[in-house]
Amino acid sequence: MHKWLVVNLLTLATSIPLTGQSIEGEIVIHGRVIDIASGKAAIASINYKSLPTGGIKGRFRDSTYSFSIFGASRYEVTAEIPGYIPAVVIVDPKGLSEKVLVRDLHLTPRGQTIKLTHLIFEQGKSGIDQASFQELDELVALMKGHPSLVIQLEGHTDNLGNASRNIELSRERVEEVKSYIVGKGVGKNRVKTRAFGGTQPLSSGKTEEERNLNRRVEIRILSE
Length: 224
Fold this sequence. Notes:
It contains 4 helices and 13 strands. The protein is of the alpha+beta class. It folds into 2 domains: 26-109, Immunoglobulin-like (Sandwich); 114-223, CATH 3.30.1330.60. The relative contact order is 0.13.
């Protein structure tokens, strides 16, 4: 009886965090779930797991999440709401100097396209900058987590220069993105491509900022 009491008191003591104190090597990961359409917080099913094995995992039902990690393992965080396209972020503590890392999850209503906001190409070329890899890896994780998902990558350029060349450039870029995704283990039949060049601008393209807005690759969900 006394042995059981001592063991359980020790367990209870070690499970209660000390407010305001951090543990050596601890990194706190937290973020919000945001509805892209409204810009407001949204309550979602949030799951996280360590990569690559998923040996450490957890879940929340909320519009925010927070958990602590130790060591150099990466983590995958997924948010899902019925009627929305699931969102995935990958947390990588490697080289992180801060003790707190914020990663929000942005959910897009079904039927809308998702813009790859961190996708960077060489000027006038199709080569993908390394700074784009994390966002593409998150897309890979989304597709691996939802094996029936089929997407279409839609390429757009600004409307400067030769229209035929712009179509070709947008085609080269979406094919480059597809090659990256397929190279990470996603079936090529699950990734379609379309090239629009400068025919579907989001703005007039009169300024460099507007032209940057028009240069984009968007994801359209074809089937789930």
